[in-house]
Fold:
Amino acid sequence: MYLKYMLMASALIAGPALAQTQPPAPTGGETTGLQDIVVTAQRREENLQKAALAVSAVAGDTLVKQSVTQATDLSRLVPALQVAPASSFTQIYMRGIGSFGANAFAEQGVAFNLDGIYLSRPAAPAALFYDLERIEALKGPQGTLYGRNASGGALNVITAKPKLGETSGFVNAEYGNYNAFKTSAAINLPLGEQWAARLSGQYARHDGYMSDGYDDERTGALRGQLKFDSRAGINATLMLDYGHVGGKGSGGTIMPLIGNGRLGASDPAVVAAYLAQSPTAPVPQITAKGDGFQNNNYYGAALTANADLGFATLTVIPAWRKTDLDFQSYASSFLIRDIEKSRQGSVEARLANRSGPVNWVAGVYWFDEHVDAQQGYDQGSNRLQINSLLDTRSLAAFGQATVTMAPSFRVTGGLRYTDDHKQQLTNFTNMPFVGFVSPGTGNFTPIFANIPAVATSDVHFRKATWKAGVEYDVAPRSLIYASVATGFKSGALFAATGQNYSAPENLTAYTIGSKNRFLDNRLQVNVEAFWWDYRNQQVSHLGPVQVATTPGGPVYAPVFLTENAGAAKLYGIEAEVLFKPTSDDLFTADIQWLHARYKSFGYLAYSSSGATPAAGCAVTPTSRLAATAGAAIFNVDCSGRPVVNAPDWTVNLAYEHKFALKSGASVTLGADTRVQSASYVSIDYLAGGRQGAYMASNARLQFEPAGGRYSLTAFVNNLENTTIFAASFQSPVKNGVLYNQLRPPRTFGVRASMRF
Structure:
């Protein structure tokens, strides 16, 4: 099956066009070659081809061409990246390293940054994907320059900035099937010689992809920026932004898929199939309804100030963000009701020298976050209410230097020390079904236990992370590099009266890479080989925790917890090839082979019925006491299994050709595809949670009149209408019943763009 997809892909020559798809204006007289791309992945501006680290860049225009309006759309652009929904949260995985973040306690394993500002909440990557300069995907631990929660890498979103002395802007409007309408616009205004402003916004909507209206989109966002440049070494940019995400939210469907359509969780056929699974009535049941919703709001303010001190540039970035979540979801087969208010403040200050034999950057970082969350979970025969106050304070100091030892040889070293201080005060009540009472009428009334508990934590997680590397210029356009880097993800809290936090997870990465340009700058070949040692992985799942102490021993009940559950080895190779034989043609190929397996992986599972949990791993009972009679706790050992969200093969290919017309107009044809081998999308390792090998392709045809100010594009995404699993979750009360979330089906439409 996989070979079939590979042959089809070879015929298409498709995949994500990276930043080179829309290059900046040619320099040095080059008109047909690949253009240089500037990135800030190492906290300074540098040529992407000269950056001695594994990083992929995607241009803002490419995001528009691919109809990207939310984080989950990024999965089809970078082979190493998998982004999945979880109700109103976003889960980011880089080569299988990430977090199943689905509640207020969760933090990402891949750092998400907006203009250099770290966003902690898993719900934060929303209403941001418009008027962008580029996106940078940094692969592997970024423990020196990015610090906490960058064990798997970092995803940097860089907005388009105001430009002095320029009046310009754009308007994009798109309409397609599922009643989709998306529009984005920006205007840049000069305000004298030293000031400029930029205002941009986005509105995106489409009807639900599921039969019951879920998997819809209702997103609106606005961003304003004001820039000052003294033209004497001092500049600053103030950014204010607001975003709203509404609609019904993400949906799910019972496995195996019923019929040929995308039947949602509240579809009558899905509800009937769910109710038919054991345990059945009269055991209390919860069924999905059509009243799911999202009413999530995001606010941000940040100032980026730079001052030229002569010997170095001082950069100071104070930032504030607010995330207000209010949603109800049935995507995982049961009711989730969440009201969460989070506030974060941060300040980063760093010095970076401008030139010389030693290029260095040094800085300090302060982060403070407060989360007030009310989370309710109703699984029919088990209910859980969690009200928590969570506080995180983080301090860090860091430095990294690259020393030129010889004209073509450089050595890099970096060190960061982080102190995370986390506190919680959580009141939670577990309400499992324990039986019936009959008042003599024959009508059975269900009885639920009421087990209240209080969880408190006050803990520090301290870690020193480092990086060492070498790089050598083999030729003016050829670089080889090697590095060893470490990263850590801070310990995670959860609701329990006993042990209620996990230890930090750690990752050490060994990398050898080469970046090259050949054929008069028309062919780019970048290759990276990597070997990652992943320890103390944090796994979030519904499992047993201690909720009270009784004379008979500990009492356990199911809560969404995070525990250290395993160690893994990951190694592989990624090759990126761009070929621009003429000014009108561009071929792109990005191929990753990844071997990711668990050396050890075990966790505890809670069975409300006492039956052995369904899992594609070894399951053995324990002697631990469950909360109710008949329930039981089991050990699950998945050692040797593949890492979740880590397919062995991922191939992105693309081709674009521009046809020049005699009138001065042009027609551009582009096609791309992603071919991916099979992988699991949940730690249950059940057949229903295994995504088979697939191919998903996109195509577009663009007409641009002479002058290039206008364009009209017809497009189709997921041409094959492939069903692709984004995530999978097993019902907590119906053993072996899986609900899967899906990536978008075939979508098509037209897009009109105007630039001025």
In short: Residues 486 and 508 are 4 Å apart (CA to CA). DSSP finds three helices and 41 strands in the chain. The longest strand covers residues 409-437.
